[in-house]
UniProtKB/TrEMBL annotation:
InterPro entries: Beta-glucanase-like, CHR-like, ConA-like_dom_sf, Glycosyl_Hydrlase_16
EC number(s) from the headed UniProt entry: 3.2.-.-
Function: Dual chitinase/transglycosylase that plays a role in cell wall architecture. Chitinase and transglycosylase activities are coupled. Required for the polysaccharide cross-linking at the septa and the cell wall. More specifically, transfers chitin to 1,6-beta-glucan in the cell wall.
Record-annotated GH16 domain positions: 89-278
UniProt-recorded name of the protein: Crh-like protein
Low complexity composition-biased segments: 393-405
Main location (coarse class): membrane
Taxonomic classification: Eukaryota, Fungi, Dikarya, Ascomycota, Pezizomycotina
Coiled coil: none
Organism of provenance: Parachaetomium inaequale
UniProt subcellular location: Membrane
Region feature (Disordered): 337-423
Length: 450
């Protein structure tokens, strides 16, 4: 299946037919309102697709506002077709009908999938429809190239745990790696791996993440490049393991780190300002990254954390740690984009019915808040200072550094979870999105013309 390249503005309009002028925003301190209960991956409130992949239960109206996430499946994704890809405006949560969901203009060329970024666009992002709760994921790929052009291959959870590979287009011999716990921007977590051979653009290379409850390994072309142990991440101040630990989607993307709307620090990190009149644009019509195959191997364990015995994952406590994840038989599919996690059968079953009858946002994407470099309105207090100080309720003294249990429960405030709408057990975050998060937030936000 080969798809013609559409103008990005047209694609955006098709995917965001009902964007309200003032979309409610959400954070740990500001929950979504009941009429738009789901907090999307980039901190805006709505129903429908807002309640699917990326929906943050900690910032939503209630924990069960988000639709449960499909459990891990061992799978090899041959990236030679887009038959199993759906735009975010077409996907209602059934992983049997799609392997990938996203926004942008993925193309098929020469038996591979290209993630494209035409001039003045924010590129393309794809995310798996199932979640991996520990395991192995490997991508065989070629990166993009050029100043300001960034390719990303990451794991990203609904509570913003993150494990990354990122590639800056002016340094084709380096794979940058990083990890974050619940979006806390601790920029000392990075590490580089040298890519052997010609470069990451001209040659295919295999990039792998092995993730267990105890450590993360980054492996390039079968050679171990970096290891991070969970035991090295204890934060005595917050009484938390600063270690990614919750079910995550695989996300692949290309995005303009060097866009002139970005902060200077992001542009500098990305290798400078992006050239929308480059030879790449003139010759091909877009910057691109090439993906040949992505494989997922689920973690093998008989007891949580890390199981995938049921149908879906959901959170039973706002702490959003590995011991608050439930491997369940709850359904994952909405009847229409009018639905939410608490009313999954709402609507007549057509994907567009909500857009025709409701002013509530149903399809995430667009809006000035998603322009690269803009501060994230849902980040803690929303001050955009980029700090990581706590602005919500911190982990209680009941958290312990023994084992990997993180049930930071303050019984006096009803931290037992369920539909509890308090911030018990969660740390507030005051942050401006770091570079790695742009690969997710900017891409899936839609094809906003700059």
């Amino acid at each position: 299946m080969v798809r013609a390249l559409l103008p990005l503005g047209a694609a955006l309009l098709g995917a965001t037919a009902v964007l309200a002028a003032d979309i409610p925003t959400c954070s740990l301190n500001k929950k979504c309102p009941e009429e738009a209960p789901c907090c999307s991956q980039y901190n805006q409130c709505g129903v429908g697709a807002y309640c699917l992949g990326g929906c943050d239960p900690r910032m939503s109206f209630s924990l069960d506002s988000c639709v449960p996430a499909p459990v891990c499946q061992d799978k090899v994704y041959k990236m030679d077709s887009l038959d199993r890809y759906k735009d975010i405006s077409e996907y209602l949560g059934d992983p049997s009908k799609a392997d990938w969901v996203g926004q942008g203009e993925p193309l098929v060329y020469d038996g591979n999938v290209l993630l494209t970024m035409p001039a003045k666009s924010v590129g393309t992002v794809l995310a798996t429809t199932t979640y991996m709760w520990y395991g192995k994921v490997k991508a065989r790929m070629k990166t993009s190239r050029g100043a300001g052009v960034v390719t990303a291959f990451i794991l990203f959870s609904d509570v913003k745990d993150e494990i990354d590979y990122e590639f800056v287009g002016v340094d084709l011999q380096t794979a940058q790696t990083n990890y974050y716990f619940q979006g806390i921007p601790d920029y000392v977590n990075g590490g580089n791996i040298t890519i052997e051979g010609a470069n990451s653009y001209d040659e295919f290379h295999d990039y792998e993440i092995e993730w267990t409850p105890d450590e993360i390994k980054w492996i390039v072309d079968g050679k171990l490049g970096r290891t991070k142990k969970r035991s090295e991440t204890w934060n005595a101040t917050s009484n938390q393991w600063g270690f990614p630990q919750t079910p995550s989607r695989v996300q692949i993307s290309i995005w303009p780190g060097g866009a002139d709307t970005n902060a200077k620090g992001t542009v500098d990190w990305a290798g400078g300002a992006i050239d929308w009149n480059s030879e790449e644009i003139k010759h091909f019509g877009y910057y691109f990254a090439t993906f040949a195959e992505v494989s997922v191997e689920c973690y093998k364990t008989d007891s949580a954390p890390g199981t995938h015995k049921g149908v879906s994952y959901y959170y039973n406590n706002i702490a959003g740690t590995n011991d608050t994840v439930v491997d369940s038989d709850k359904p994952t599919v909405l009847k229409s984009f009018a639905g939410t996690g608490t009313d999954m059968d709402k609507g007549d079953g057509t994907s567009g019915d909500a857009s025709q009858s409701s002013s509530v946002n149903t399809i995430p994407g667009g809006g000035s808040n998603q322009v690269p470099g803009g501060s994230n309105p849902g980040s803690g207090s929303g001050s955009g200072t980029g700090g990581s100080g706590s602005t919500g309720t911190s982990g209680s003294s009941a958290c312990a550094a023994s084992g990997f249990s993180q049930h930071c429960d303050d019984e006096s405030s009803g931290g037992g979870g369920g539909g509890n709408n308090s911030n018990n057990g969660a740390r507030g975050v005051d942050r401006t999105l770091g570079a790695s998060a742009f690969a997710v937030i900017v891409g899936i936000a839609g094809l906003l013309l700059l």
